[in-house]
């Protein structure tokens, strides 16, 4: 109601009334607020001042109460008379009797039983206890009047009322002046606009009649027409630029590899780019008339051969509800191609933009990457990837399980110095890989690096990863625990070698001799039996005998070549296989040289624990030709017979047999 009433008022009153009302109400509200604030402040100050004065007088009255000196008490209370608002006060002792009393009551107030009753005055009382060393001596009660405060507040209100009347009159005058300043130019603009409307918006400009505000407005109006003409020109250019930009956008959309469809809620496709046409062959359009609308198959028919159904239903639901659909993956039932589809609502209209992309190749690549990551994590060897700065970039589960989740290469220790010189680095950078055998430990594997169990024998393989510029970007370090492999080698060595001397045992020796014979290699089989070994055992003990066998084993090994066989069969019996060709007399002489060297070496004294022992050997030799059809057992029997022949002939000699008869004996 008020809004309609104010809207119907003339412009003059619309300007005057608000200004006058606003200034008048502001003055009244300001005056009332100031008067109220001054009254509250004055009242608080009066109460605070009276309370402080009461506390001070009460503290000075303790002595007068103790000595019952009423005159001193009255003298102390006379100090209250200096405050004009204090109208009365009295002191009562601990026995509730009046000790001293101050009476400055106005005429309209009187005492009634130690209380004050006033007809027209407003007052308040403050009572404060009188104590000395926590002993209660009495109470001091002071009455203060608020009449002066209310009188001052009434004076302030009167002044503000008078000021409000003056400001209201000034506001009315000011509103009239503002109306004249505003309404006159508006009337001039109104008449000028009527003239422009009657003449029409043309290239003609209004004439400036007077060089006043109206003239300035007229010039501004003419400038406005000039700006409108210029804006029309700019709009034409903008439309042309927009058309060019639209053409550019269409070219960009046509060049995209991802398909784009614009679909309204009725699922009738209104736009598609060439990529969508390639991805969805069921899209059709009218090729006879380019000006006609697109004629396409329904959206459901286009995705008819795709699955799963629940995702297709979600796609249609989001299109109908004009909502965004996060990317989903659908599969073509015939080609098994995978497509990623998402929808985006187009602002301003209810159309939805469908984005479709063939992700079959990407999905396959991601699957391969996941498989590679799974293989990396499930690799039994510990694998870490280092950057060019040798920072740990990633590590697999085996590395974390064995060496801990370390984040710095300095926490991985090598027991031996690798000795990575320039040639080794060159091999690594040239060939792209490097293999090193080392004992490895880490800070999390053990805190005591002196503990042998803290070190793992490992095969460290370093491979480089290079970029397209053939520059090394990172390193793949594979650490394979060789504990089981070394244990298998140790067990294999123990099963094929003599535990005391470390020489090949009977089984190993037979296997090697048979293998070499199968490879068409001739060999001299030496059956060695020590002379005097039993006497050493009986004289110095079996421990000394074991040490003697170790020395004999070392001497036999040093007497032959590396490819030759040295084995211990049992006790003090040894078997040697020497691979010399017996095709020339010179080479034939070599076997005798070797045999004599063996005899001379064994004959040398052996010092064991300050004891000197001496043994000799009887050696039976048989030449097992590579073309011989006799088996190893037969050949060894011949060598054994030759050894016994050497013993019968006096020991410390060798006897050589070939096929059926001996060749040479010494």
UniProtKB/TrEMBL annotation:
SMART domains the record matches: GGDEF (SM00267)
Biological-process GO terms, alphabetical: signal transduction
Domain of life: Bacteria
Transmembrane segments: 15-39, 156-175
PROSITE patterns in alphabetical order: GGDEF (PS50887), HAMP (PS50885)
InterPro entries assigned to the protein according to its UniProt record, in alphabetical order: Biofilm_reg_signaling (IPR052155), CHASE8 (IPR033417), GGDEF_dom (IPR000160), HAMP_dom (IPR003660), Nucleotide_cyclase (IPR029787), PAS (IPR000014), Rev_trsase/Diguanyl_cyclase (IPR043128)
A GO CC term assigned to this protein in UniProt: membrane
Domain HAMP as annotated: residue spans: 180-233
Domain spans labelled GGDEF: 521-659
Pfam (any one): GGDEF
Keywords: Membrane, Transmembrane, Transmembrane helix
PANTHER family: BIOFILM ARCHITECTURE MAINTENANCE PROTEIN MBAA, DIGUANYLATE CYCLASE DGCP
This protein's name: GGDEF domain-containing protein
The organism of origin for this protein: Aliivibrio sifiae
Source lineage: Bacteria, Pseudomonadati, Pseudomonadota, Gammaproteobacteria, Vibrionales
């Amino acid at each position: 109601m008020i809004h309609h009433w104010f809207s119907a008022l003339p412009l003059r009153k619309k300007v005057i009334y608000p200004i006058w009302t606003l200034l008048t109400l502001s003055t009244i509200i300001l005056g009332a607020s100031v008067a109220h604030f001054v009254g509250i402040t004055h009242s608080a100050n009066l109460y605070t001042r009276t309370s402080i004065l009461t506390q001070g007088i009460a503290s000075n009255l303790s002595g007068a109460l103790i000595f019952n000196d009423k005159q001193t008490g009255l003298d102390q209370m006379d100090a209250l008379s200096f405050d004009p608002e204090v109208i009365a006060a009295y002191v009562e002792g601990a026995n509730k009797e009046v000790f001293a009393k101050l009476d400055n009551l106005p005429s309209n107030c009187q005492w009634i039983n130690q209380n004050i009753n006033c007809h027209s005055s407003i007052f308040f009382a403050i009572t404060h206890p009188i104590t000395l060393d926590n002993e209660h001596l009495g109470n001091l009660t002071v009455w203060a009047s608020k009449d002066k405060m209310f009188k001052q507040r009434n004076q302030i209100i009167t002044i503000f009322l008078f000021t409000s009347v003056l400001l209201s009159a000034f506001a009315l005058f000011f509103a009239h002046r503002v109306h004249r300043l505003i309404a006159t130019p508006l009337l001039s603009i109104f008449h000028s606009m009527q003239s422009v409307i009657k003449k029409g918006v043309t290239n003609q400009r209004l004439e400036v009649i007077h060089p006043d505000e109206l003239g300035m407005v007229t010039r501004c109006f003419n400038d406005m027409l000039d700006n409108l003409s210029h804006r029309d020109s700019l709009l034409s250019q903008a439309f042309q630029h927009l058309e060019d930009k639209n053409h550019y956008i269409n070219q960009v959309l046509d060049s995209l590899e991802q398909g784009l469809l614009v679909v309204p809620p009725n699922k009738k496709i209104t736009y598609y780019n060439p990529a969508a046409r390639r991805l969805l062959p069921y899209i059709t359009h009218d090729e006879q008339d380019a000006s006609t609308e697109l004629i396409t198959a329904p959206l459901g028919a286009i995705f008819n051969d795709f699955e799963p159904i629940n995702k297709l239903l979600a796609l249609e639901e989001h299109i109908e509800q004009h909502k965004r659909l996060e990317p989903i993956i659908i599969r073509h039932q015939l080609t098994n191609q995978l497509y990623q589809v998402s929808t985006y609502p187009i602002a301003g209209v209810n159309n939805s933009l469908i984005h479709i992309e063939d992700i079959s190749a990407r999905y396959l690549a991601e699957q391969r990457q996941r498989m590679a990551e799974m293989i990396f994590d499930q690799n039994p060897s510990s694998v870490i990837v280092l950057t060019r700065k040798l920072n740990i970039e990633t590590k697999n589960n085996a590395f974390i399980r064995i060496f801990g989740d370390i984040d710095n290469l300095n926490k991985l220790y090598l027991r031996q110095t690798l000795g990575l010189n320039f040639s080794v680095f060159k091999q690594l950078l040239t060939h792209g890989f490097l293999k090193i055998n080392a004992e490895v430990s880490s800070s999390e594997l053990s805190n005591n690096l002196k503990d042998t169990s803290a070190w793992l024998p490992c095969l460290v393989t370093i491979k480089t990863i290079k970029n397209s510029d053939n520059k090394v970007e990172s390193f793949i370090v594979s650490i394979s625990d060789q504990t089981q492999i070394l244990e298998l080698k140790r067990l294999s060595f123990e099963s094929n070698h003599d535990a005391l001397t470390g020489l090949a045992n009977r089984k190993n020796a037979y296997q090697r001799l048979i293998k070499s014979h199968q490879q068409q290699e001739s060999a001299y089989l030496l059956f060695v039996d020590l002379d005097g070994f039993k006497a050493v055992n009986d004289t110095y003990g079996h421990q000394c005998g074991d040490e003697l066998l170790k020395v004999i084993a070392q001497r036999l090994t040093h007497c032959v070549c590396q490819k030759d066989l040295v084995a211990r069969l049992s006790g003090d019996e040894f078997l040697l296989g020497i691979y010399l060709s017996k095709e020339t007399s010179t080479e034939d002489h070599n076997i005798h040289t070797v045999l004599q060297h063996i005899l001379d070496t064994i004959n040398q004294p052996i010092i064991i624990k300050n004891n000197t022992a001496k043994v000799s050997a009887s050696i039976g030799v048989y030449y097992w030709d590579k073309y011989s059809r006799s088996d190893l057992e037969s050949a060894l029997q011949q060598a054994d017979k030759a050894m016994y022949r050497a013993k019968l002939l006096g020991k410390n000699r060798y006897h050589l047999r070939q096929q059926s008869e001996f060749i040479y004996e010494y």
